């Protein structure tokens, strides 16, 4: 049975759901550590410039394709041009790959939240805690199951009653929490064993001050690459998710305005996450603590919380709760995209497809968890990093498929169907598309060239 097409109730519901997809672990964990690694203010400036150019173009394209075709990515591209049907299938692969590991990371966050809730924080701040947890056989699977069940429940309830209602409730709460912790972070100060006093405001300077001193072309290219891959992941573009959400948007919604709001939401949360994490890590661990990369959240931050004394545990509970919310709304969007696409292919109800995708997610996520123990193996990726199962999935989806899909999409829109289709769609509600000229230039020239370079560099071809 084919179900009646679901819709968001209006603009706010759509913006909050799309922002819910965009705001996730990428903003709260990946953005701050890239910022710390790439010289604070310098990374911020580059990222902001990319959001306003590439981010805006890619997001507009995805959402407008969705609303124009009123279809999921799988069919939408074929509807635009029947020879380009393959692009829909390629796009579908990305959420299918991300689904395998996103709930595993969601499970790690749930585990930290629950542990802070029931016990004191001394165990979590030990160096070996995180590794011994993810390499254990049962615990990561149990917490992943918990997180996945919650995700499936929201998707099962559908677009308006599930995703929209849930996002309306979660997203404002998330902003309040992050703002509260960020302000608190700035008030911190600490005297280390050598008698050096470090304050939150000094940490803010480390975060915002653009360090141009040792800027070389090679370093700048590295920053550009990091910022670009962060942009894809963070805005959830080029993976069919925003096409799917776009297909639920009613014709009278002002796309121009909604897209700006989604970008402001996503970048604002990332910015605040940096303001919350970088000064705190700087105060308690100094500049060394910030070089910790991906382990920032699960290894460095618990140390920071432990150094804060009694209030640390409360902040930690609030932090992991917020992080859990952010991860949940993102995971919901990944699962929704898979369910919605499958509903269209197999003409089955949402409930049945939820069950099928739920089982797929469960089996693959268990395999990813086991990738840290019984199924452990390592491979060297074309870009030189050594990876295990979860990293491999992340690499294929983010570094390989996303730039490739963006490249193909820009060729399809820029040169085959023509940018006018997107411009007309944005102007459908009578509103003038102010950045139409910029859009045309970007989609025809800048996006294909830059995506090609990004693809070649991140796959190690050049
Ligand atoms: N945009 C999300 C984040 O920033 C991640 C995500 C990627 C969500 C892909 C859905 C799909 O964490």
Q: Would you give an account of this structure?
A:
This protein is 74% helix and 2% strand. The protein is mainly alpha-helical. The protein has a single domain, classed as Hydantoin permease. Strands 1-2 form a two-stranded antiparallel ribbon. A two-stranded antiparallel sheet has the order 3-4. Strand 1 and strand 2 form a beta hairpin. Helix 3 (41-69) runs antiparallel to helix 12, helix 3 packs across helix 17 (420-426) and helix 8 crosses helix 12 (255-290). The chain is globular. Bound molecules: phenylalanine. Phenylalanine (PHE) binds next to helix 1, helix 2, helix 10 and helix 14.
Condensed summary:
Its main location: membrane. It is found in: Membrane. The chain has one domain (11-377): Hydantoin permease (Orthogonal Bundle).
Give the CATH level 1 class.
Mainly Alpha
Q: Would you identify the regions where 5 or more consecutive residues have pLDDT less than 50?
A: none
**What composes the largest sheet?**
2 strands, antiparallel
| Apparent shape | globular
| SSE-based structural type | mainly alpha
State the fourth-level CATH superfamily: Hydantoin permease
Strand content: under 5%
Helix content percent band: over 70%
Widest beta sheet: strand line-up: 1-2
Order of helices and strands: HHHHHHHHEEHHHHHHHEEHHH
Tally of contiguous helical segments:
18
Radius of gyration: 22 Å
Average pLDDT reading:
90
């Amino acid at each position: 049975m084919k179900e009646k097409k679901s819709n968001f109730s209006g603009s706010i519901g759509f913006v909050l759901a799309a922002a819910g997809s965009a705001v996730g672990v990428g903003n709260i964990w990946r953005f701050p550590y890239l910022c710390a690694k790439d010289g604070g203010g310098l990374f911020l400036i580059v990222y902001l410039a990319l959001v306003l150019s590439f981010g805006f173009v890619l997001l507009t394209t995805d959402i407008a394709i969705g609303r124009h075709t009123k279809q999921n990515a799988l069919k939408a591209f074929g509807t635009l041009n029947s020879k380009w049907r393959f692009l829909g299938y390629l796009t579908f692969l990305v959420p299918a790959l991300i689904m395998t590991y996103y709930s595993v990371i969601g499970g790690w966050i749930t585990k930290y939240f629950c542990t802070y809730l029931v016990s004191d924080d001394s165990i979590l701040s030990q160096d070996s805690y995180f590794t011994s947890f993810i390499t254990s056989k049962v615990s990561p699977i149990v917490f992943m199951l918990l997180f996945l069940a919650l995700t499936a429940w929201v998707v099962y309830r559908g677009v308006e009653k599930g995703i929209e209602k849930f996002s309306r409730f979660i997203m404002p709460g998330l902003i309040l929490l992050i703002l509260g912790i960020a302000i608190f972070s700035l008030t911190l100060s600490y005297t280390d064993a050598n008698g050096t006093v470090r304050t939150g405001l000094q940490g803010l300077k480390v975060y915002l001050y653009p360090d141009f001193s040792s800027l070389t072309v090679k370093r700048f290219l590295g920053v550009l690459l990091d910022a670009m891959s962060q942009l894809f992941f963070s805005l959830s573009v080029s993976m069919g998710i925003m096409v799917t959400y776009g297909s639920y948007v009613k014709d009278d919604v002002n796309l121009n305005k909604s897209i700006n709001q989604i970008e402001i939401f996503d970048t604002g949360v990332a910015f605040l996450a940096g303001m919350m994490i970088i000064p705190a890590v700087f105060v308690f661990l100094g500049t060394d603590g910030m070089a910790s990369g991906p382990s920032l959240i699960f290894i460095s931050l618990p140390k920071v919380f432990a150094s804060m004394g009694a209030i640390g545990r409360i902040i930690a509970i609030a932090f992991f709760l917020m992080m859990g919310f952010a991860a949940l709304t993102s995971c919901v969007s990944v699962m929704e995209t898979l369910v919605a696409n499958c509903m269209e292919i197999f003409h089955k109800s949402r409930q049945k497809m939820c069950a099928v995708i739920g089982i797929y997610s469960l089996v693959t996520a268990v395999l990813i968890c086991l990738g840290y123990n019984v199924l452990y193996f390592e491979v060297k990726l074309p870009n030189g990093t050594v990876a295990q199962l979860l990293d491999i999935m992340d690499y294929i989806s983010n570094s390989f498929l996303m730039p490739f899909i963006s490249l193909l999409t820009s060729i399809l829109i820029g040169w085959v169907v023509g940018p006018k289709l997107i411009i007309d769609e944005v102007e459908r509600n009578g509103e003038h598309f102010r950045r139409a000229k910029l859009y045309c230039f970007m989609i025809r020239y800048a996006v294909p060239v830059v995506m090609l370079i990004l693809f070649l560099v991140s796959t190690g071809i050049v």
